[in-house]
Amino acid sequence: MLPTKEKIIEHLSNKMTNQDIANIYGTTFQKIIQLIKKYELDPNQLRQVNKYTVYLHLLDDEVVYVGSGVWYRCRRYTNRRNTEHKQLMKESKIEYKFVGEFDREEDARSYEKELIKKYKKLGQAKFNKI
Question: What percent of the chain is helix, strand and coil (3-state, nearest 5)?
Answer without folding.
Answer: 45, 20, 35
